[in-house]
Amino acid sequence: MNKHFVGDTAVLLGRSLRHIARSPDTIITTAIMPIAFMLLFVYVFGGAIEAGSDSYVNYLLPGILIITIASGISYTAFRLFLDLKGGIFERFQSMPIARSAVLWAHVLTSLVANLISIVVVIGVALVMGFRTGAGVSGWLAVAGILVLFTLALTWIAVIPGLSAKTLDGASAFSYPLIFLPFVSSAFVPTQSMPGPVRAFAEHQPVTSIVNAIRDLFTQQPVGADIWIALAWCAGILVLAYLFANVTYRRRIS
């Protein structure tokens, strides 16, 4: 690893964050859809859904946070694609900077932008009646899971960002990820689902992540869900990181 990796990443991260500061609509757009889903499900469908909770927004919020991240990481692929087509990568290659710093700058930019969007969504949820008795340790655990999940999905986003042929193709990969929470315990308990759907819902990563966050917010014993969630996040992160770097090396070679 280049000895200047940290400094190079910091400089490139500053560049990416300045772009976001000049175009805050990306963060606003990322937050609008999850907030719209939250309003729709709480105020339109909430009365008809039996989720076993006094407040449906309390039950709903963990899944909404996952959707926020899934919609936000599409901008990583979008920005990477534009940098490639704009010739920025070729310019960086001619400079004495760490090659991996370019990707890490985009990944960390995604992390910062998504955390801001998550804060906005939680703020709206509080206005809608979300309440939690979680202490500092509970909030830190939730933050840790969300950070790990964001990094995992962002490294997935790097792959189409580097390999897509069109701008639409670079962003389209996120649609299945946004849909995944709908076939999980995010909106209704999995017990209410038909057999095959329930089997899928109970064995996909979103359910364990949502359940772990929900238990942390309600101060319930997290049991095995938190370890399954962390295992899913770590496994996806490692595989996505490896494939992204292979794609990157092929793209710039």
UniProtKB/TrEMBL annotation:
Predominant location category: membrane
Membrane topology annotation: Multi-pass membrane protein
Claim: Transport is one of the keywords in the record: yes
MF annotations from Gene Ontology: ABC-type transporter activity
Residues that span the membrane, as ranges: 27-49, 61-82, 103-130, 136-158, 226-244
Domain ABC transmembrane type-2: residue ranges: 25-251
Gene Ontology BP term (one): response to antibiotic
Localisation per UniProt entry: Cell membrane; Membrane
Key words, A-Z: Antibiotic resistance, Cell membrane, Membrane, Transmembrane, Transmembrane helix, Transport
GO cellular component, one term: ATP-binding cassette (ABC) transporter complex
Family to which this protein belongs: Belongs to the ABC-2 integral membrane protein family.
UniProt-recorded name of the protein: Transport permease protein
Lineage, top ranks: Bacteria, Bacillati, Actinomycetota, Actinomycetes, Micromonosporales
